[in-house]
Design goal:
298 residues; Arginase, Chain A; 10 helices; alpha/beta
């Protein structure tokens, strides 16, 4: 049913071929190179493949958890989902259907996307399995516009679509939004936001975020949630983002305190001659996997 990448081309490129086999792996990584509404730097469709290629240089051993978690979980990577002729609602349907099939197969689903729009299709599938879910969003932008450039499926509107599903969300690292988004945040009981400037002034921000989350947490990570010094090659960079260790501390905390049901990493726009961002996000992906395995969530 699913076509997967060979072991030498999969995430981490493990030497053990059986650990890249979908039937024997607890983790399934789906690649979603959907880019249709990019509004600044384009090229995010190259992001998922770039993360996979960069992951081949990530060490198998994680010193924090004293583990090589891939040996315990297996990691299968699906071929890129084909979006030929499919945009907006049709594209979200394709993503929803593949995500649902993976969840029905009892896989822990990790998604590597192009533009942030893909999260809408992913979350709609998770919502069916976890009706009481909430979303932790790491991002520079609120993505709460009702529509952007007349498109309600814009990357700038994805969290508005999640809000339409009635899903509570905790936003972290926000430092760019329009008044429409700020007004929605103020009026909605389902949106709690930790702005970047508040984080830098509040030593208790991680614990406060964790306490605001429900039990079943889906995590969406826009690479621009990190400071450009950490992840420069993104669609719309903003100064003042999370440091590497702030991001890791948050992911460690949520892995320990909550039931993380899945996660995605989106919005990398690779630049020629610079592999820092894709390598950093590949390592982040494996670190998060390691934290979750260490806490017996995978």
């Amino acid at each position: 049913m699913f076509k997967t990448l060979s072991a030498e081309n999969t995430f981490l490129a493990p030497p053990e071929e059986e650990l890249a086999d979908l039937a024997q792996s607890k983790i399934a990584i789906q690649l979603l190179p959907y880019e249709y509404t990019s509004s600044y730097h384009e090229g995010s469709y190259k992001g998922p493949k770039a993360i996979i290629e960069a992951s081949h240089y990530v060490e198998f051993y994680d010193e924090e958890t004293d583990s090589e978690c891939y040996k315990e979980t297996g990691v299968a990577t699906l071929e890129e989902l084909n979006f030929d002729g499919a945009v907006d609602a049709e594209a979200m349907k394709l993503i929803h259907n593949q995500t649902k099939s993976l969840l029905d197969s009892d896989k822990f689903v990790i998604s590597l996307g192009a533009e942030h729009t893909v999260t809408g299709g992913i979350v709609s599938a998770f919502k069916e399995k976890y009706p009481d879910m909430c979303v932790l969003q790491i991002d520079a932008h609120s993505d709460l516009r009702e529509a952007y450039q007349d498109n309600p499926y814009s990357h700038a509107s994805v969290m508005a679509r999640v809000h339409d599903m009635g899903i509570p969300m905790v936003q972290v690292g926000i430092r760019a939004q329009c008044k429409e988004e700020a007004d929605l945040r103020k009026s909605s009981s389902k949106i709690q936001t930790w702005y970047a400037h508040n984080i830098h002034q509040n030593p208790n921000w991680i614990q406060e975020c964790i306490e605001a989350l429900g039990t079943n947490v889906y995590v969406t990570i826009d690479a621009d949630g990190f400071d450009p010094s950490v992840a420069p090659a993104v669609g719309t960079a903003e100064p003042g983002g999370l440091t590497w260790f702030q991001g890791l501390d948050l992911l460690k905390a949520v892995s320990k305190a909550k039931n993380v049901i899945g996660f995605d990493i989106v919005e990398i726009a690779p630049r020629e001659g610079d592999t820092l961002t894709e390598f950093t996000m590949a390592k982040l992906c494996y670190k998060f996997m390691s934290y979750l395995h260490h806490n017996k969530q995978i």
